[in-house]
Amino acid sequence: MERIVLKINSIPPSLNVIERMYRFKRQKAKDEWESLVGWEAKLQKIIPNQAIQKCKVRLIYHFIDNRGRDPDNYNGKWTLDGLRKIGIIANDTFKHVDLKAVLGEVDRKNPHMEVIIEYERTEDI
Q1: Of 45, 61, 71, 113, whose CA is between 20 and 30 Å from 101?
Q2: Which InterPro entries would you find in this protein's record (predicted)?
Q3: Which class is 2-119 in CATH?
């Protein structure tokens, strides 16, 4: 089993925050997050030659504080869309991705998100 670890030096807004955004602001925020995912992947040189067809994706959030957060408010949609657009994963459907969101440790100095992608290696990747 191969493994890719992408560290994103930010955390996407929660669904509660997203739902309160005006639609144009929400679309701009989504586009910016997807772009950030792509740039981080390019900087960390983790883009495979061919998009991964089937994988397990774990999202680990490292928040700035220990405040209680609902895991269903961090579903990873924007992150998976970014991974798909940059060409790391072929698609973000149930057929292609087994997704699990995990709340991580507190990181007061550097709140961030880790995306761990596990997949079976094929000769083209």
Answers
A1: 45
A2: RusA-like_sf (IPR036614)
A3: alpha beta
Point out which residues pair with 52 in neighbouring strands: 89
* Other CB atoms within 10 A of residue 98 CB: 12
What SS3 state is found at 34? Answer: helix
| Residues in a beta bridge with 48 | none
Closest alpha carbon to 93 in 102, 82, 104, 84: 84
Nearest to 113 by CA among 68, 82, 84: 82
Domain spans in the chain, listed from the N-terminal domain onward: 2-119
Planar angle of CA 85, 88, 91, nearest 5 degrees: 65
51, 97 in Cβ contact below 8 A?
A: no
